[in-house]
Design brief:
Strand 24 and strand 25 form a beta hairpin. The chain is mostly beta strands and 887 residues long. The N terminus is likely disordered. It is built from 7 helices and 56 strands. 4% of the residues lie in helices and 56% in strands. The strands form 6 sheets. It has a 30-stranded antiparallel β-sheet that branches.
Length: 887
């Protein structure tokens, strides 16, 4: 709001005297620079003028800096009027003045250089209404008053009905006094975050204001108005920090109550604006029964380098009172870290992290999280990886990865800290110098791969305790594949490879019978040990194309069928030399074999020889149909089946049951690729006996069909809406990050720390224009997920899974949004998780209601508050959540 109209006055003065010359010593004889009468200069369209001060050489001793440092431009649609007698300059109708970074636009601009004042105001249009309000802009500061009066000697100004933006707030004052370049005093001012400053839905009214643009606003007694009606909400004084940069400050907690934990203050704390690159928010909850929670949330970013965020949550939960039989106390925690690196910063080096670990019961028992999708999920997973490419010849790739997988039901945790992978690019030792690789010999290539793992299997109770690291398993695997490929009989693609593997372990086992415990005991043997294996594989495949034509006049012109048959052969010899024996009962009569490499990270060498033939057939079906667009000359291609695969294998060395069950799988996309259909089944050619075991008898010879279907499943996912929406806009980011689904089939996640965010997928851009009656096009979206599972391993012929999940969101009116997530389990004959969502857009405010009517965790929450972050503490947040049973 820094209004420097001093330059505008000099603009007009120099425009008036623009034809005069400047002299350093003597002056010429005085001449009339203006006619004796008032003169009006009119232009046919728009008058444009520029003023440039002519540089005159003067002695160095008296040379002065020019008064104006740049060109000045002006224009007006109707006329520019010069009144020499009254010393007035008038620009009328769409008057504009430009000087450096200063812009002044108004209906009329008048400069009185006798009083050293400039005036800008509105003018009347043909209907008698005032139009063309002054707009003063300097840099990023913009002021839009009804009129403005400025004295360029004292540099003070009076502004009537000024309008300006200060951060998220809009300020309007009846009278504004400019004291100097950095301090303004206002009378009868209002503050609001509403888009319409002249007719806001709410505002704060005050009589005295001191404004320092870009820094602060200090006000006296302030009263809140809603729809021009005063409310009981008032403050004797207030201070609003106004800064384009983030600033540290207190986060006001919200009040709530619980049936078993008492009253509480939640989500209170302090925000630290540490720098432009990172910040920190420390939040906490406290309940009167002693329960408390702490959260540390930080975001960081460096342009063109990296970005990420870290959330650390800890809760100490107490139920009931000490001394009562139902008293319980538990500590739960959750750590989330997300980091991504800009690929442009270093193409040869990459680092990323996606961490979600903590107590298995966190999302079930948390007092500050309503993450329904995360609560229903049974797995938490994390990954931190670093990779680097060395531009050598051959190229070398190195990666280090730490992974974590946690089952929240069994509380089992599997980790690798870390996994080392090193690979050397393929080398073609017999290829010609020009790079041509044709034929069996020239295509021979080899490469080297190293994989090392430090694998840990533990539970919640032992997590990061010494026993966890003591049970770690360490191993290294070296592999050198030697392969080649060539054409056989012109149409058959042939591949062959010999694979050499060497595995290193730092500890093995010794197995024997312990008579004192009357059991077989595995004893760890520390020390380096290794085993080596090798195998041979070969494959033969081709591609067959077939087209079925139905005629040019048919709607379906042709169907194209592509088949890719493949036959593979694999051979692995027996490595019985790595096997020893042990007495399994201490009597010496029952001797069993084992290998000291059992339970190793990369498994153990096989004792039995493997000699298998594999068969695979993949199919795709595509149709050519007449396009609905009559202007198109070419038929339209439609995918009927993306894939239809058949696979099985034959064990040459087995004495019985040589054929493995046939696996059939397929999938396709329908309805403009909105519906994803996938299906699979297992077909067993062998029969089973009365105990359910496979026998070496064909199923058809046992009175059955050619194949016995032992299992089958089908899934259908269908997402559609009234308009095409980018998949990124439909994702439930926080739900996905917490380990749940990326959609809202299991409801939307509610962040109780900041309810200002919409639970719907809001579009920042306004949709279709709203007419005066109703928005006739209602935007909506729907997601369907259907799953069917069939089991027949032991002739039970049973449907073990049959469920339908539905999620739908729509706008009842331009400002009302509703949504629902529900489902039905046809096997259990019951309704699955159900959530209802309601939201009202109140322009500067937002109101929502979230309700889970039944289930293990019924919940409802109501929120109404201002969207603007600077006024986020003005809200009412009420929720009623059933107290959870700690586990």
């Amino acid at each position: 709001m820094q209004i420097k109209l001093f330059y505008i006055v000099f603009l007009t003065i120099f425009l008036t005297l623009g034809n005069a010359k400047i002299y350093s010593q003597e002056l010429p004889k005085k001449t009339n620079s203006f006619p004796s009468k008032n003169q009006e200069t009119k232009s046919e369209n728009t008058t444009n003028a520029e003023l440039e001060v002519t540089e005159v050489k003067v002695p160095d001793s008296i040379k002065k800096k020019p008064l104006l440092e740049d060109k000045i431009k002006r224009k007006a649609v109707d006329y520019e009027k010069f009144d020499q007698k009254k010393k007035l300059i008038t620009l009328y109708n769409k008057a504009e003045v430009y000087y450096q970074d200063i812009e002044l636009k108004s209906g009329i601009i008048v400069i009185d250089y006798n009083k050293s004042e400039v005036y800008a105001g509105r003018i009347k249009d043909s209907t008698g209404l005032y139009t063309q309000r002054p707009v003063f802009k300097q840099g990023s500061n913009v002021v839009e008053p009804d009129s403005i009066r400025f004295n360029f000697k004292t540099k003070k100004a009076l502004v009537w009905n000024s309008r300006t933006d200060q951060g998220e707030l809009k300020v309007k004052a009846e009278i504004t006094k400019k004291e100097n370049d950095s301090v303004y005093f206002m009378k009868s001012a209002r503050f609001t975050s509403s888009k319409d400053i002249d007719n806001p839905e709410y505002y704060f009214q005050t009589n005295k204001v001191k404004l320092v643009p870009g820094k602060k606003v200090v006000v006296g007694f302030t009263n809140m108005f809603i729809a021009d009606v005063p409310t009981p909400i008032a403050m004797p004084f207030a201070f609003f920090p106004m800064s384009e940069k983030s600033r540290s400050g207190i986060i006001v907690p919200s009040y709530n109550d619980s049936n078993t934990r008492g009253f509480s203050l939640q989500n209170g704390g302090y925000y630290f604006a540490l720098s432009d690159s990172y910040d920190l928010a420390v939040l906490g909850d406290y309940f009167t029964n002693g329960s408390y929670a702490m959260r540390f949330e930080s975001s960081y970013a460096k342009k063109y380098k990296f970005s990420g965020n870290v959330n650390v949550r800890f809760e100490n939960l107490i139920s009931s009172e000490r001394g009562y039989p139902d008293y319980s106390r538990t500590n739960i925690y959750n750590i989330q870290w997300s980091h991504s690196k800009d690929a442009k910063s270093n193409p040869n080096s990459r680092f990323s992290a996606s961490v979600n670990l903590g107590s298995s019961s966190y999302f079930v028992n948390s007092i500050n999280q309503v993450n329904v999708g995360s609560r229903l999920n049974n797995t938490l997973s994390s990954s931190i990886s670093y990779s680097k490419t060395f531009n050598s010849v051959p190229e070398v790739n190195l990666s280090l990865t730490a992974t974590h997988s946690q089952n929240t039901q069994t509380e089992q945790i599997n980790m690798t800290l870390p996994t080392l992978q090193l690979s050397v690019d393929r080398v073609f030792p017999f290829a010609s110098k020009d790079g041509t690789k044709k034929g069996f010999f020239k295509n021979i290539n080899l490469q080297y791969n190293l994989r090392g793992e430090n694998r840990i299997e533990t539970t919640d109770s032992l997590f990061f305790k010494p026993q966890m690291f003591k049970d770690a398993k360490i191993g290294f695997q070296h592999s050198i594949p030697l392969s080649t490929n060539f054409k056989l009989l012109k149409y058959l693609s042939t591949t062959t490879s010999i694979n050499y593997n060497e595995v290193w372990y730092l500890k093995t086992i010794r197995r024997n019978y312990d008579p004192t415990q009357n059991a077989v005991i595995d004893t760890e043997v520390q020390g380096f040990d290794a085993f080596r294996t090798y195998s041979f594989t070969a494959g033969l495949g081709t591609t067959i194309y077939g087209t079925f034509n139905f005629g040019e006049k048919r709607k379906i012109k042709a169907i194209r069928h592509v088949m890719r048959p493949n036959i593979s052969y694999s051979y692995t010899p027996s490595f019985s030399k790595y096997y020893d024996t042990y007495d399994s009962d201490g009597s010496g009569t029952i001797i069993k074999e084992y290998t000291r490499f059992d339970n190793g990270v990369f498994g153990a060498p096989g004792k039995n020889m493997s000699n298998n033939l594999g068969f695979n057939l993949s199919n795709t079906f595509e149709a050519k149909v007449t396009d609905k667009d009559s202007t198109k000359t070419e038929p339209k291609k439609i995918m009927l089946l993306n894939n239809l695969n058949f696979s099985t294998s034959y064990d040459i060395t087995a004495d019985s049951l040589r054929w493995s069950p046939m696996r059939v799988s397929g999938g396709t996309l329908l309805f403009k690729q909105k519906m994803n259909v996938n299906f699979a089944m297992t077909l067993d050619p062998y029969a089973i006996n009365n105990s359910g075991r496979r026998i070496n008898t064909w199923n058809i010879d046992n009175g059955g069909s050619l194949f016995r279907m032992t299992s089958a499943n089908m899934t259908i996912n269908y997402a559609f809406s009234s308009k095409d929406v980018d998949d990124a806009d439909k994702k439930n980011r926080q739900g996905e990050r917490n380990g749940g689904r990326e959609d809202d089939l299991f409801g939307s996640n509610a962040d109780l720390g900041d309810r200002r965010q919409s639970q719907f997928k809001d579009d920042d851009n306004e949709a279709e224009a709203i007419n005066e009656f109703f928005k006739y096009k209602l935007p909506w979206d729907m997601t369907l997920a259907y799953s069917l599972t069939y089991s027949n391993n032991n002739r039970e012929k049973k449907i073990t899974g049959n469920s339908l999940m539905v999620s739908m969101n729509t706008d009842l009116t331009p400002k009302w949004k509703i949504g629902a997530s529900t489902g039905y389990d046809f096997v259990q004959d019951g309704v699955t998780f159900t959530q209802l969502r309601f939201e009202r857009d109140l322009l500067s405010w937002r109101m929502d209601f979230n309700w889970v009517p039944f289930g293990d965790n019924p919940y409802w929450g109501f929120f109404i508050g201002i969207k603007a972050g600077v006024l986020s503490d003005i809200k009412w947040d009420k929720r009623n959540q059933a107290d959870r049973t700690l586990r």
